[in-house]
């Protein structure tokens, strides 16, 4: 399941990107394919249950990325920056934090406030130091004001600053909320790494954030997008502010189109337009078969001159940031 994409020799002193999840909100396998199987049954979903997830690139949790950031290799300074904590966060921690020896989370960045990006927030306490009185350093979370307003309604106990008089102490995740602008011209630092917000349309009524990061290699992570505003496209296109070294991009369905996501045909057109050096696709439904579609992409990449592959859960990509 190893990808051909890589940016360093893979030594432990370098940074890496670890894909905790590469699937859509409903994940893969699709539950209805198992409860009400078609004739013949969906091959991807059947395979998803017949092969252990750690050996099965067609088993997909909610899209999420962990950045294992080595700021100063000589000092052994490692930071672990997480993008999104969706419905499958706990499952991915058990599977991939253990496998990749990730000891903690130093900071979290949220793309938006939909369920597949934030419903694992309660489980952040599982990767924090234990304290029955919540007397620990909070984990910084960076998010837009719109996401903050929504999360305050979903998780009021994670947002309130102090307990009401007479309220019992209950162990909950300790979080330091930081509002970021949905503006390409207003970068921010998370655990020492600079991120540039990339506002994109997730349907014409909703702005989601992607993120640009890395100086030695420029990486853009865009998980939920249906259209790129011109200002955002300029920042990440070869014909604009400069060519990306790696584009990580949304691709929901294998064919057709969708009102709030890019699908495979539009994704590949976007890749040609932005012209990154390499691309990994995320957010896939059960329409994608990892092996078959990567064979297709191998031929497409040779023809177009832009390497493109499907990512998979657990994929680790060494990279200089």
From TrEMBL:
Residues 80-283 form the Metallo-beta-lactamase domain. Keywords: Hydrolase. Pfam families: Lactamase_B_2. Gene3D superfamilies: Ribonuclease Z/Hydroxyacylglutathione hydrolase-like. InterPro entries: Metallo-B-lactamas (IPR001279), RibonucZ/Hydroxyglut_hydro (IPR036866). This is Putative hydrolase isoform A. It comes from the Eukaryota. One of its GO terms (molecular function) is hydrolase activity.
């Amino acid at each position: 399941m190893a990808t051909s994409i890589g940016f360093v020799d893979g030594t432990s002193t370098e940074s890496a990107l670890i894909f905790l999840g590469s699937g859509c909100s409903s994940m893969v396998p699709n539950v209805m394919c198992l409860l009400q199987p078609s004739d013949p049954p969906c091959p991807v979903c059947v395979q998803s249950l017949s092969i252990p997830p750690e050996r099965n690139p067609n088993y997909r949790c909610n899209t999420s990325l962990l950045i294992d950031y080595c700021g100063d290799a000589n000092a052994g300074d490692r930071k672990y920056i997480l993008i999104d904590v969706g419905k499958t966060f706990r499952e991915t921690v058990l599977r991939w934090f253990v496998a990749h020896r990730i000891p903690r989370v130093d900071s979290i960045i949220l793309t938006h406030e939909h369920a597949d990006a934030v419903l694992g927030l309660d489980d952040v306490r599982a990767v924090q130091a234990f304290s029955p009185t919540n007397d620990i350093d909070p984990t910084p979370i960076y998010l837009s004001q719109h996401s903050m307003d929504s999360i305050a309604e979903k998780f009021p106990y994670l947002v309130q600053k102090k307990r009401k008089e007479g309220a019992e102490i209950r162990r909950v995740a300790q979080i330091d909320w930081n509002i970021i602008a949905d503006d390409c011209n207003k970068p921010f630092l998370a655990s020492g790494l600079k991120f540039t917000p990339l506002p994109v349309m997730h349907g014409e009524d909703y702005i989601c954030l992607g993120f640009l990061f890395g100086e030695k290699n420029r990486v853009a992570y865009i998980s939920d997008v249906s259209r790129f505003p011109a200002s955002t496209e300029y920042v990440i296109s070869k014909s604009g502010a400069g060519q990306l070294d790696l584009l990580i991009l949304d691709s929901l369905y294998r064919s057709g189109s969708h009102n709030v996501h890019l699908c495979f045909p539009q994704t590949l057109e976007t890749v040609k337009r932005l012209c990154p050096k390499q691309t990994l696709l995320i957010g896939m439904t059960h329409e994608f078969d990892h092996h078959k579609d990567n064979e297709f992409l191998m031929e497409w990449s040779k023809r177009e001159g832009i390497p493109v592959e499907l990512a998979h859960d657990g994929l680790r990509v060494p990279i200089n940031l």
